[in-house]
Amino acid sequence: MSIQESGEMYLETILILSKEKNTVRSIDIVNHMGFSKPSVSRAMGKLREEKYIIMDKDGYIALTGKGRETAEKIYERHILLTDFIKRLGVDEETASEDACRIEHVISDKTFEAMKKHAAEGKLPKAD
C-alpha cells in the first residue's frame, strides 16, 4: 500500500525532530508543522494503524522500520533536491519549498539519475 503525500510529510517531520531531540510527541509535530492538534492526532492514528509509527502510553512517537525507511527516502530527496535547486541560483527558502513539493511526486528512476549525477559531480555549479 502506498502512503499519501501528507503521511510522508509527517514521517519526514518525525525523522527530523528525532534527530534534533531524543523524544517526539504530537505537540512537537504541531509546533513544527503549524497544523492543528486534531489534524496531527488523526494523522498519527492513521500512521499507527498502517504500522509506520508506534506510540507508547505516554504519547512518545517512534518510527517503525517501515516508517523510518519511508521517512529517510523522503528526507534524502528533500536534501538533494534543495541542493540541486539552490545550485540553479534559487534562494534557500524557495529551493526548500519547491523541493518539498517535488520530493513526493518525482519518480524513483528520475531521482536515482539525479543521485548518480550528484555523486559524479555533475550537478549545476553553485554561483
Report on this model:
- The chain has 127 residues and is mainly α.
- The chain is built from 6 helices and 2 strands.
- It has helices at residues 5-20, 26-33, 37-49, 65-87, 92-102, 108-119, and strands at residues 53-55, 61-63.
- The chain has a two-stranded antiparallel sheet.
- Helix 1 (5-20) crosses helix 4 and helix 4 (65-87) crosses helix 5 (92-102).
- 21% of the residues are buried.
Topology:
Layout: H1 5-20, H2 26-33, H3 37-49, E1 53-55, E2 61-63, H4 65-87, H5 92-102, H6 108-119
Antiparallel strand pairs: 1-2
List keywords for this structure.
two-stranded antiparallel sheet; 5% strand; 127 residues; 6 helices; elongated; mainly alpha; single chain
Question: Percentage of helical residues?
Answer: 55-70%
**DSSP strand count:** 2
Question: How many strands, what sense, and barrel or not for the largest sheet?
Answer: 2 strands, antiparallel
Helices, by number, come to 6
Q: Give the strand content.
A: under 5%
Give the H and E element order: HHHEEHHH
Mean of all residue-level pLDDT scores: 91
Overall structural class, as computed from helix and strand content, comes to mainly alpha
Briefly, what is this?
The chain is 65% helix and 5% strand.
